[in-house]
Design brief:
The protein is mainly alpha-helical and about 200 residues long. The protein is built from nine helices and two strands; from the N terminus they run αααββαααααα. A hairpin with a 2-residue loop joins β1 and β2. α7 runs antiparallel to α9. The longest helix is centred in the middle third of the chain and has 30 residues. InterPro entries: WH-like_DNA-bd_sf.
């Protein structure tokens, strides 16, 4: 049976995988009430696990180093309680070569957008390069969610971004949205945090 992660752990985990985010964005990502997320983040802040910062009128939450360590310990406990460590390690190994493909495609596209890439890169070719990773992601996610429900949704979000990229290229690597690059980054960070790995 797949294990459901407690809300307090999910909030810490989302603050890490998103990198820097408002309580509203974390709440949307987790499907939790914003007030609950804000309360849990404030509690984490009082324990030195989370920090709120603002710049030019925009503010957001992130984890402190202590918060990252705390989150990793909680995830490790959950992983072992679910008996899923070997399964997640196997998925991570299969994820890495696919990650190389996504990273190369996204980097090439970013360089092309800035006009500094060595080789010409087209939108059509970039989307085509990301189609196989999107297919592979479905299988990787199914293997993960068989043990931990919190790994659900990555394939849906990645595929949705890819389907929109043909008419709006910002969905490949754009920030402030669920772009292909953003979704993939979050999954990579989620795997790293779960296994206690340094990226």
């Amino acid at each position: 049976m797949s294990r459901t992660t407690p809300a307090d752990v999910l909030v810490l985990h989302a603050a890490r995988t998103l990198g820097y985010a408002t309580a509203a964005r974390i709440a949307e990502r987790l499907g939790l009430p914003e007030a609950e997320v804000t309360e849990r983040l404030s509690n984490a802040q009082s324990r030195g696990w989370a920090a709120y910062s603002s710049f030019a009128g925009d503010g957001g939450w992130s984890l402190t180093e202590a918060g990252e360590h705390r989150g990793e310990r909680l995830l490790a406990t959950e992983l072992d309680a679910a008996g899923a460590r070997r399964a997640v390690e196997d998925v991570h190994q299969d994820f890495l070569p696919v990650n190389d493909v996504v990273s190369a495609a996204c980097t090439a596209w970013q360089l092309a957008e800035m006009g500094i890439g060595e080789d010409p890169v087209t939108l059509t070719a970039t989307i085509a390069a990301l189609e196989e990773p999107a297919h592979a992601l479905a299988g990787l996610e199914a293997r993960l969610t068989a043990h931990l429900t919190r790994f659900g949704g990555y394939h849906r979000r990645f595929a949705a971004a890819l389907s929109r990229a043909g008419t709006e290229p910002a969905w490949i690597t754009g920030t402030g949205r669920d772009s292909c690059h953003q979704v993939w980054f979050e999954l990579h960070e989620a795997l790293s945090a779960t296994l206690g790995l340094t990226r």
